[in-house]
């Protein structure tokens, strides 16, 4: 909220660098910005550029949290629609950084102007200096020049190199930041800030009271505790490793020797891939050997000259490392047919060797001699997975073949196993064999072990689990960080245990182990987990791949391997990035007092889980929808299958939520319970809640007009209470405010406005009176209602709307006026080029003029819309229901009369309670007239401690206090913050007794005749020290 509303939306043109630590919610902030710019009419065409493996996560989170539909545009989509500019066809697009940068893609992008561009992992758009700009950087320049608003997201904006940093800032504005060398210098160039960074250390939960009574703010992010699971291979498995490595080295050396042959790079990539598969599992290695042998044999049968067959175009090493799993699999299948063999005889020899190695691998599998698999079983037993079926495990591997093998093996050991891999579509939680369905099964505990490839590192959130096994360690260190991010994220309350499997007597195992040991040493020296977040700034994604490929090709010897691998992995370089460059930029101090106040106000207004659970329990009976209550968990139930009658509400024109599931798993209305137990959180905004609410409302409309009769202790004479609904609508036809009014009509008295919740203090009459009182037929007091309620309501709403519209109008005027000025400048430049007869200048001039006309029309359209938004009127005023409030028949009974409040005594008690709270330095407000079930709100701005205080006054030193049904419900629903303050001796010297927290836990006695509850002061005093 702070980033979006206190920073971004104060800019005429959003040109902003959001550099919070990883996991800080940059996607949420981006979604809020999108929503706000859309509401202002400033963002219709939106492009999100991110690494390919994060595209699904962006699409999913924007859909789930903002109901924003974005298309993920992939290379295949562009190939399938050849001749059509897909960038022009779609208004909301997510695409990958490495797809958008390609030379064949850029011309299509140049034809499009975007209202908003968001770039995730923007630090990848790097440039060493003016003469060495990467393709990604040139893409950044294009997007900067073809967008109105641009938001760059990165956890590592500064590498410690001033020139690199200056070039990076120029992706925001080439003119403003052309010669800056520091953030501070850049900040002084602008009236409004353009940069915000928050560290993980600054991210804490709101303060909570500890067992010792002190208030503490716990860190949001838990610890990550890595463990190395080392093992050694021997016997036939070691023989297989040596034979495959010998084959890989020989083919890699041949490829290196034929460097001018386009096939050589393909073979080099394929050989290193085989070595990775060998490290993953014998099964994965065998499958690759068999597949390649089969592809080469097929080529021989078709009499193809495979030695002259052109290999597919290979992207750069970094792009290969960050390629989506499905794309990598497709590329691998194409490369399997490429060979360096120069004749049919050489191909027959290669096929024979591949088959021999595959047979050798099969023998290792049959013997059950895989050391890593044995180590896996030992570790599962040691960590208690065989004994605790409720303990969940996320198990990562790089390859689909290894995944299939592990799933089969784990099932044979008796585990409930699921999987996620790149061949699965995103789907939904109700669609079997999709990623989201597998995730939901894991959350619900239907599966204990989730085996996943890198596809699960792409937008799957599994905080329900805190143990991760890396069955094979990816050569790209960034992949490891992404894997850990699936469980080490907001909402994870336990420390995360990470187990890395390493074969210490293989080249790859030793290399990876040494690299991670070095990174851990640096992390311990700096005492900073950011080391893991910035590995990609020190080591390119393909660094390990390059080093090992040089080793396989014979360019590096054993003695040089470690030196080459760790050459740039030194503490000074990480310190320069983590501390000097990043921490110096960070704003570590949050405005906690402001956030505490906002949170407390939201906490007071929120609909609590108890209220939601009570509503669902009663309303579900009207559907009917059976809800099986789960006594062991608070506010938790298990719904039966969703009945067809609820599905009709999905067809309502204003239904904006996802479709109802066929059946929901175990649900809770309490967020913490849902998160801790992997349950469905059902709350306002959830499809099930909304469908039940709409159904209940529809049923209620049938009976509201019939009216009802209640008994009241507050009324000495009959009264009628009319309930009205009123709406305020703007000139666009949008309902901007809706309010319920309760108007009390009494015979011979002026009408009186009451709080609509007052019925909670009445007792329903068993039957209407035999003879209706005269007040029942009195005319409606519509004129009085208009003057005393509706007109002030309209004025209040108009003032709020005008304030909002003026803020938006100022932003829109500043933004579009600045954009028009930019367009004027572009027209001037293009016109000058036309005069100089520069090729293509006429087209650029026409494009600039069109852009200027579009912006001018948009500004006029927005001005018109904003004028209509200022024009608010009162509409749709209707009487919904009328009820009779009748004097309670037991009102004069002695046991009831003594419980009736003395308003003078209550006023004294309120004064004493208010003064007491103010003396404690708390922020205090009298809300007694609003019929909320309590009289005072009191907030400690230091700790965030919120008290909802019900005040009771007694004239004497003792007696009994009374709770109305409304007050009792409030006490039951808010046990965390509801307090009872009793002031005695109000007739003489008022004295505040020891305040009681959570008074609903005490043994209140029910007054049967009036459905109220009483408690003696003596009992209350005995319980005052028992506050939980």
Given helix and strand content, the structural type is alpha/beta
End-to-end Cα distance = 33 Å
What is the number of strand segments? 36
User: What count of domains describes the coordinates?
Assistant: 5
Specify the CATH architecture of the largest domain: 3-Layer(aba) Sandwich
CATH class of the largest domain: Alpha Beta
- Average pLDDT, to the nearest integer? 83
CATH fold-level label of the largest domain: Rossmann fold
Give the gist of this structure.
The chain is of the alpha/beta class.
Notes on the protein architecture:
This protein is α/β, with parallel strands linked by helices. The chain has five domains: 2-198, Rossmann fold (3-Layer(aba) Sandwich), CATH 3.40.50; 234-367, no CATH class; 593-704, no CATH class; 708-877, no CATH class; 894-1026, 3-Layer(aba) Sandwich (Trna Endonuclease, Chain: A, domain 1). It is 44% helix and 17% strand. The protein is built from 37 helices and 36 strands. Strands 3-4-2-5-8-1-9 form a seven-stranded parallel sheet. Strand 14, helix 19 and strand 15 (449-452) form a beta-alpha-beta unit. Helix 11 packs antiparallel against helix 16 (344-367), helix 12 runs antiparallel to helix 13 and helix 24 runs antiparallel to helix 25. The protein is globular. Residues 580-590 have low confidence and may be disordered.
Q: What tags apply to this protein structure?
A:
globular; Rossmann fold; 7-stranded parallel β-sheet; 37 helices; 6-stranded parallel β-sheet; 1028 residues; alpha/beta
Summarize the helices and strands and which ones pair or pack:
Layout: H1 2-6, E1 15-18, H2 26-39, E2 46-50, H3 55-66, E3 71-73, H4 75-80, H5 86-89, E4 92-96, H6 97-100, H7 106-110, E5 114-119, E6 127-129, E7 132-133, H8 135-145, E8 147-153, H9 162-169, H10 183-187, E9 195-196, E10 208-209, E11 215-216, E12 224-231, H11 235-257, H12 262-280, H13 282-301, H14 317-321, H15 325-335, H16 344-367, H17 371-382, E13 393-396, H18 400-412, E14 417-420, H19 435-444, E15 449-452, E16 467-470, H20 477-484, E17 496-503, H21 507-526, H22 530-533, H23 535-538, H24 543-552, H25 558-566, H26 571-582, H27 592-605, H28 609-619, E18 627-629, E19 636-639, H29 644-647, E20 667-668, H30 671-677, E21 680-681, H31 687-704, E22 708-712, E23 719-729, E24 735-746, E25 752-754, E26 763-764, H32 782-835, H33 841-870, E27 873-887, H34 894-897, H35 903-919, E28 923-926, E29 936-939, E30 946-953, E31 960-963, H36 965-973, E32 978-984, E33 991-992, E34 996-997, E35 1005-1007, E36 1012-1016, H37 1017-1023
Parallel strand pairs: 1-8, 1-9, 2-4, 2-5, 3-4, 5-8, 12-17, 13-15, 13-16, 14-15, 16-17, 20-21, 22-27, 30-32
Antiparallel strand pairs: 6-7, 10-11, 18-19, 19-20, 22-26, 23-24, 23-27, 24-25, 28-29, 29-30, 31-36, 32-33, 32-34, 35-36
């Amino acid at each position: 909220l702070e980033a979006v509303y206190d920073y971004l939306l104060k800019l005429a043109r959003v040109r902003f660098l959001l550099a919070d630590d990883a996991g800080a919610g940059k996607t949420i902030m981006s979604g809020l910005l999108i929503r706000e710019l859309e509401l202002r009419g400033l963002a219709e065409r939106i492009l999100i550029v991110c690494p390919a493996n994060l595209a699904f996560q962006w699409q999913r989170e924007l859909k789930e949290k903002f109901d924003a539909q974005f298309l993920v545009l992939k290379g295949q989509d562009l190939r399938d629609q050849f001749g059509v500019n897909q960038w022009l066809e779609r208004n909301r697009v997510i695409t990958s950084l490495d797809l958008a940068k390609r030379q064949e893609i850029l011309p299509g992008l140049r034809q499009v102007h975007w209202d908003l561009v968001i770039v995730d992992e923007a630090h990848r758009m790097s440039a060493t200096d003016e003469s060495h700009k990467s393709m990604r950087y040139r893409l950044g320049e294009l997007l900067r020049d073809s967008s109105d608003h641009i938001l760059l997201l990165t956890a590592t904006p500064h590498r410690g190199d001033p020139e690199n940093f200056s070039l990076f800032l120029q992706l925001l504005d080439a003119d403003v930041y052309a010669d800056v060398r520091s953030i501070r210098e850049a900040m002084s160039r602008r009236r409004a800030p353009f940069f915000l960074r928050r560290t993980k250390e600054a991210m804490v939960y709101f303060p909570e009271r500890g067992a010792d009574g002190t208030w503490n703010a716990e860190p949001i992010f838990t610890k990550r505790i890595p463990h190395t699971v080392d093992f050694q291979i021997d016997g036939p498995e070691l023989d297989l490793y040596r034979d495959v490595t010998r084959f890989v080295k020989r083919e890699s050396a041949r490829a290196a020797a034929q460097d001018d042959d386009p096939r050589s790079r393909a073979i080099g990539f394929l050989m290193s891939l085989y070595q990775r598969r060998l490290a993953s599992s014998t099964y994965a290695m065998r499958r690759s050997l068999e597949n390649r042998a089969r592809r080469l044999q097929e080529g021989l049968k078709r009499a193809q000259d495979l030695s002259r067959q052109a290999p597919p175009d290979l992207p750069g090493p970094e792009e290969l490392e960050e390629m989506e799993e499905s794309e990598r699999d497709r590329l691998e299948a194409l490369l399997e047919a490429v060979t360096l063999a120069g004749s049919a005889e050489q191909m027959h020899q290669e096929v024979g060797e591949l088959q021999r190695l595959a047979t050798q691998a099969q023998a290792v599998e049959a013997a059950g001699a895989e050391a890593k698999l044995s180590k896996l079983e030992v570790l599962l037993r040691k960590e208690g997975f065989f004994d605790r079926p409720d303990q969940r495990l996320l198990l990562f591997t790089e390859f689909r073949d290894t995944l299939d093998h592990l799933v089969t093996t784990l099932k044979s050991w008796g585990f409930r196993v699921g999987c996620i891999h790149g061949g699965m579509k995103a789907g939904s939680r109700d669609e079997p064999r999709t990623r989201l369905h597998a995730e939901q099964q894991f959350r619900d505990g239907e599966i204990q072990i989730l085996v996943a490839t890198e596809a699960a590192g792409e937008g799957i959130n599994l905080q329900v689990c805190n143990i991760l096994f890396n069955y094979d360690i990816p050569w790209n260190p960034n992949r490891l960080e992404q894997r850990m991010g699936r469980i080490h994220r907001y909402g994870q309350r336990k420390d995360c245990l990470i187990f890395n499997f390493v074969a210490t007597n293989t080249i790859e195992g030793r290399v990876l182990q040494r690299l991670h040991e070095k990174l851990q040493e640096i992390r311990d020296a700096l005492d900073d987990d950011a080391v893991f977040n910035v590995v990609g700034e020190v080591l390119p994604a393909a660094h390990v791949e390059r080093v090992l490929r040089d080793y396989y090709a014979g360019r590096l010897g054993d003695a040089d391997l470690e030196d080459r691998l760790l050459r740039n992995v030194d503490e000074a370089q990480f310190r320069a990035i983590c501390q000097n460059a990043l921490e110096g930029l960070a704003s570590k101090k949050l405005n906690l007092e402001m956030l505490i106040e906002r949170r407390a106000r939201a906490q007071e207004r929120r609909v609590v889980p108890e209220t939601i659970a009570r509503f669902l329990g009663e309303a579900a009976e009207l559907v009917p929808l059976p809800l099986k209550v789960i006594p062991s968990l608070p506010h938790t139930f298990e719904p039966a299958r969703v009945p067809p009658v609820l599905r009709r509400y999905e067809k309502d024109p204003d239904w904006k939520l996802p479709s109802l599931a066929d059946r929901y798993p175990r649900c809770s209305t309490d967020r913490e319970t849902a998160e801790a137990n992997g349950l469905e959180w059902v709350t306002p905004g959830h499809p099930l809640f909304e469908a039940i609410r709409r159904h209940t409302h529809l049923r209620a409309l049938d009976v509201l007009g019939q009216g009802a009769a209640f008994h009241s202790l507050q009324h000495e004479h009959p009264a009628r209470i009319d309930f009205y609904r009123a709406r305020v609508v703007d000139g666009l036809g949008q309902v901007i405010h809706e309010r319920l009014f309760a108007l009390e009509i009494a015979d011979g008295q002026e009408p009186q406005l009451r709080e609509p919740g007052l019925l909670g203090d009445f007792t329903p009459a068993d039957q209407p009176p035999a003879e209706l009182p005269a007040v029942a037929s009195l005319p409606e007091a519509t004129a009085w209602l208009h003057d005393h309620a509706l007109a002030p309501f309209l004025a209040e709403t108009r003032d709020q709307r005008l304030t909002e519209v003026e803020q938006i109008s100022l932003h829109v005027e500043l933004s579009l006026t600045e954009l028009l000025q930019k367009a004027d400048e572009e027209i001037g430049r293009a016109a000058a080029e036309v005069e100089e007869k520069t090729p293509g200048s006429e087209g650029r001039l026409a494009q600039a003029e069109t852009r200027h006309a579009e912006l001018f029309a948009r500004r006029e359209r927005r001005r018109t819309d904003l004028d209509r938004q200022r024009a608010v009127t009162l509409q749709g005023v209707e009487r919904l229901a009328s009820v009779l409030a009748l004097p309670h028949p037991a009102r004069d009974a002695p046991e009831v009369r003594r419980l009736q409040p003395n308003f003078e005594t209550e006023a004294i008690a309120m004064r004493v309670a208010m003064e007491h709270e103010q003396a404690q330095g708390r922020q205090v407000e009298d809300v007694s007239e609003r019929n909320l079930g309590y009289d005072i709100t009191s907030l400690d701005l230091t700790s965030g401690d919120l008290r909802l205080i019900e005040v009771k006054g007694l004239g004497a030193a003792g007696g009994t206090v009374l709770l109305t049904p409304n007050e009792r419900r409030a006490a039951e629903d808010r046990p965390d913050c509801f307090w009872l303050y009793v002031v005695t001796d109000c007739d003489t010297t008022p004295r505040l007794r020891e305040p009681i927290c959570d008074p609903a836990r005490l043994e209140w006695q029910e007054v049967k005749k009036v459905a109220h509850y009483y408690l003696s002061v003596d009992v209350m005093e005995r319980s005052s020290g028992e506050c939980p």
